[in-house]
Batch of 2 targets.
Target 1
Amino acid sequence: MLRQRVLTALALGLPALALVAWGPNIAVLALVVLILALASWEWAGLAGAPGTPARVLLGAAVVIPVAVLGSAPVAGLHYLLLALALVWWLVVLLVLPFYREHEARVAGRFNALFTVAGILALVPAGMALVWLHALAPLLVVYLVVLVGLADTGAYFAGKSFGRNPLAPHISPGKTREGLFGGLLTVLAFAIVVAAVWGLAPMDALVFVLLSVLIGLVSVVGDLFESILKREADAKDSGSLLPGHGGILDRFDSMIAAAPVFLAGLLWLALIPVPATGL
């Protein structure tokens, strides 16, 4: 299984990262729209959307705003959606400890709340990735690698040292030791990148702290998708990626991490704030 996961990641991940690093923004927008279309299809399935038309409708509600926002100059709406995403993920973070599986649920029943949640989560994430790429493509590459390392570090630390469950009511396999291992991996990676990029000491400190925060936020996205799968009585969101499951299974951490990372970079003035059309 691990070998299959690695081969899939190399076969699909490396070309995608190359496109992000050196491709034009319009190509990255197309890639993000494709990923979101597939992710929203799977999200609709987990939310119990009744049939193909409902899944297509959710996909349109996600990809059309991202396509429009991603091809338009930064304006007040971009900042509004970014702020909305921060509020949304803060609410999710506060709710996670109180989640308990709904015993009376019926797998496959349409869940309107989760459907709306898909729009709230996916649209800002897609917009943030395209926006960040327009400002600094290598920061998108950094974010993708950072989130992947957080997950990888947590996986190996959890298998080796995991004893204490992190969120047993949501994802029993995740442990506090795994979380700590993932954050240590992120910390080491951020320190190395800050040194290679030659950041000033204060900027480097802020950058590293933000990166560790993003490592934590990525776990929130992962746990929220675990709730979706638990409520749908599904092991994976799909089967498109051998060894990984569905697109959403690989993109769940990024959904939460992307808007928070962009907001942090802008707020901390680590990247220039674009002038708006207002």
Note: The chain has one domain: 2-267.
Target 2
Amino acid sequence: MSRIQRLSCFLILLNPFWIHVLYFLFISSFGFWVLLILNPKLTPKKLDLFFTSVSASTVSSMSTMEMEVFSNSQLIVLTILMFIGGEVFTSMVELQLRKLKLKFSEKKIACVENDLNSSLELGDIDDHNNFDILKYNSIKFLGYVVLGYLLIFNFLGIVMVLVYLKCVSSTATEVLKSKGLKTSTFSVFVIVSTFASCGFVPTNENMIVFRKNLGLLIILIPQALIGNTLFPSCLRFCIWSLGKIMKKKKEVVGFLLENSEEIGYLHLLPKLYSLVLVASVFGFVLIQSVAIGAMEWRSSSNNGFSGLNWVEKLIGILFLSVNSRHSGESIVDLSTLSSAILVLFVAMMYLPPYTSFMPIKIEEGEEGEGEEENEIMEGNKKRRKTKRAKFVDNFVFSQLSYLIIFIFIICITERHNIKQDPLNFNIFNIVFEVISAYGNVGFSMGYSCGRQVHPQSNCVDMSFGFSGKWSDNGKLVLIVVMIFGRLKKFNMNRQRAWKLL
């Protein structure tokens, strides 16, 4: 057996959860190593650099460093990390592994046997099983569709931003020049970040410096939607459209659209679910927009929307509402918003991307009966394994329970800061930061020297997240939270996040 075949067998046999864990740990560690070699303008702590690498890989955009300290080459590395860490890219890799698994299963290849005949061609599919052939071809076609979806929308977004910066807005170009950022690097970085729902922007102020560049905001809003919350609906529409154009693929397209659960691809949802998802997403955006408009429209001197006209406010509110789910880009200082809006943001960040408030009944009876029959047939040894698995299941908590545990631990690690700096290190700010990391959003309340109870003469306001002022132990916990949040789909109940128990 060749090394490639052995690796393929190992990945097929390995649980998908552990594949994801190893994948994110590997790209985060590799990204940290490359960033360390390239050396930033200002040498940070190695932990902060690793934190940034994990944040980019898990598309969390939690920040403990100012973004402008990174060189152009480092920004390119972060762009690559965001691209390969995005859900669309990783789901495409999952499809390739699933297709490879079908190849092995169709030829009944025993991956655990070392004496596998190396001359056996894995690409052959038995002709007698038409259903399996159709399923394999459908997954293969779906892989190409997802790849095209990923490349085309990123390319179109990059081109639109470049055209906007070159031909439309001189003010945005001047901002980039003043910060020493290349137009091409910024365009690629911000589109990849937005599409992957990361939220990193290569400026210290995030999108605040571009809050009056309405064209740029309008370009980024659909990118944030089609790359995350509306990805299943847009993907299904793309497949349906290709079926109308490519007559030769009509059978494959029909199989994909009618057998989404059989395909086993998380992002390929049934027709009804896809339609309701669109309504739910725009419903959440509408609720937030109305709430933000009602609470923040009348601008005061310290309000984030001060200095904007009514059109700029409308676009800004829409941009903020869209990004509060998972993208995490902001045009205002969140600490200036009202408490009611911040609580609403906490709820939006907690919800998984495909949350849909529709009573879709999931039939589980047949699956449960099949499992019981398998347990009886597999004997005592299998039953012992099942008992051990059930014992472990007692320690699998709800998502809310895990968040409470993480917040509890961070309150312990930051107990000194909570005592000495209670206005910055209040419980709500900690909860906000943890849920933002868990939701892979990147929203942060920031840190202000002006809120210190005991002012420090050497304190300087920095444009990074609140977690940048945490202890090393607190940052390590937040790294775990980001990775856990990126893998939460393995412990979700059909996206029903509002069922807390």
Note: The first helix runs from residue 3 to 13.
